[in-house]
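Input chain follows. Return structure tokens only.
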Amino acid sequence: MPGTLTGIGVDGRITLAHGGGGSAMRALIDKVFLSAFAQGPAAVQEDQARLDLAALSARGDRLAFTTDAFVVEPLEFPGGNIGTLAVCGTVNDLAVGGASPVALSAAFVLAEGLELALLRRVVDAMAQSAAQAGVRIVTGDTKVVPRHACDGLFVTTSGVGVIRPQYNISIAAGQVGDVVLVNGTLGDHGAAILCARGDLALQTSLQSDCAPLNTLVETLLHAVPDVHCMRDATRGGVAGVLSELAEASGLLVKVHEATLPVRPEVEGVCEILGLDPLFLANEGKLVAVVPASHAQRALAAMQGHPLGRNAAVIGTLQASPGGQGGVQIVNEFGGARVLTMPSGEQLPRIC
């Protein structure tokens, strides 16, 4: 029966035969991947997806292209799984450049012994996230490696999108006086992944914030077409984005600590472990930089969208002595500290 797992594994697990190019591989592709993704170009099953250039040109004047690999552990976590992460991460990388995502590719590295039911859940999550974002998964590849050669499952996704002529968003486009906003609470994904590992016996209701941000970005750009910068705050968190912004623009990013939106549960996890929410990963949060005259309009647009209800203005861009740039965190008493990026990884395998 199409859509079932019948016939692709006698014990419900991936075997090396599923990567051998024979009937087992054909059954895996048909009953797991094509049953979820086969629409439009993906249904034709050529060695490449074919996209209509006229349709793309009608939507904008530049093509955006991005790729990313996902190796999260555990593969499933509160709020999603590696499949959710793979689609949302690629969609968001396109969206924050002002691109409307069009199509994705997906490559899977499967470890021998991986449960087929788990793979099906990952693929279904990818299909659901793609539908939510309004994009198609149009091509892909599958490889199987011996057990222990990878931790169950790795996914690489690439995506293409189209940028409209009126948008010119760049990490280097910040100007003196610009205002910095975030669309919601910081560190939810990193804290949720840490708790999901079970190493610390922490009981929380935290869920990953994993979500496709393209509809939020469309709402923001409709309200404020001249957004100067946007970046999704994944590895390195909001701190990483602010540091990149300061370096690229040569400006001082002054952030007011009291304005940072952080869930009490995330604050608690950070206090126990000595972490800073600014450095924790997010998978449904972006940093936007807009002219001061449009800041309230941008904030209202974000807060009117389901993925921006907790949006906040967190800082401003100011001239930096020497033009070196930097990030300064101001506390509620007026004291300031310079934000420096850690040399190591705070949390391993969060995306």
